[in-house]
Amino acid sequence: MSDAVALKAIRIRMIKLADLIPGALDQAELHWLAMPNRHWVLLSRRRAAMIVNRVRMLAFLFAVLTPLWSIVDLVVFPFPLWFWLAMARIFASVMFASLLLYRPNGELADAYQAMALLFAVPTVFFITSYVLLGHYHLSAISAAIASGYAFLPFVLVAGFSIFPLTLLENIVFASPVLMAEGAAGWMRWSGMDWPSFAGAFWLLVLIMGVSALAGISQLAFMVALVRQSIYDPLTGVLSRGSGEEMLDLQLALASRSNAPLTVVLIDIDHFKQVNDRFGHDAGDRVLKQFAHGFKTALRRGDILIRWGGEEFLLLMSNVGVFEATRALQRVREGGMGKRPDGSPLTASIGLAERISDGCDEWRSLVKAADTRMYAAKQRGRDCVVAAG
């Protein structure tokens, strides 16, 4: 009973969080703010691109500013300390510069790797500088500049606020910074000012919380924007722009594993007559009915795209021509909906498959399916035309 009460309380808090971001998220999407494992593929790819771009932006800033601070160190620190700090800064700057050359393939794992390196370098630099400074007794201006190194973890944690991250991702990426701060305290265990250290650590945790909230808010708005951009508002299936992105992704995956990939172009027969006789509102209802019927009749993994007007594109991964043709025949036999006058909806359908058609590029695959769709029209419509 206590578990049920706890779950209910968590759900209420998540709903209240959604109220803080009006119109951004549906309640079913709230769990996406906590964990990334069920995000749309296109959302993950766009989020990965944004993370990598912001990693490069920060890497460029750090690569320029990190060695420049050596001028200040040269003025206030003795030469041996300045030399080793300068070497650490040069090494850090080279690592930051290497991130500018990083060319990911669009996967979220690559974005994680780039972000981990971006924050690992200054974290290691913080520990290194802490060890070096601990060997010197500094005073006056030197001590003041040296104390500034202690604020590096606060800068790092605040930096997470510019990334659209889930709660889990924020915790994972911020944990090494918190551990580095704890390691610095452990290294001065004997002379630790515990109230001062506890206050600083608590402030670091608070900044981490604020940064996490900022990142989660970015993610929430990104989910809403991506949802609006990838789905056709009338039919609820993928829009053409998102469909092209999905075609590119699925063809790359199929080529990598040498798996079949079938593209189907579907054109509703005599759709113009529906608009002319019954009006555009009736035509919109027909399109929604047709898209819903197709989505429910096929496999969960099949992707339906509104290609334009009354044309739809169906993307069937790991399916050859024979299996795809049989599946489409079953959909036709089961009915694809009704026209406003009660007569059945029919469609002209053309198929193309990556291996049998020898297509290494999705545009040529779509062109082959388009040619066969027009062949279906020439054969009297209401039929499926595939290779051979």
UniProtKB/TrEMBL annotation:
TM segment ranges: 55-76, 82-102, 114-133, 139-163, 201-226
SMART domains attached to this UniProt entry: GGDEF
Enzyme class: transferase
Catalytic activity: 2 GTP = 3',3'-c-di-GMP + 2 diphosphate
Keyword Transmembrane helix: yes
Superkingdom assignment: Bacteria
GO molecular function: diguanylate cyclase activity
Protein name: diguanylate cyclase
Annotated source species: Paraburkholderia lycopersici
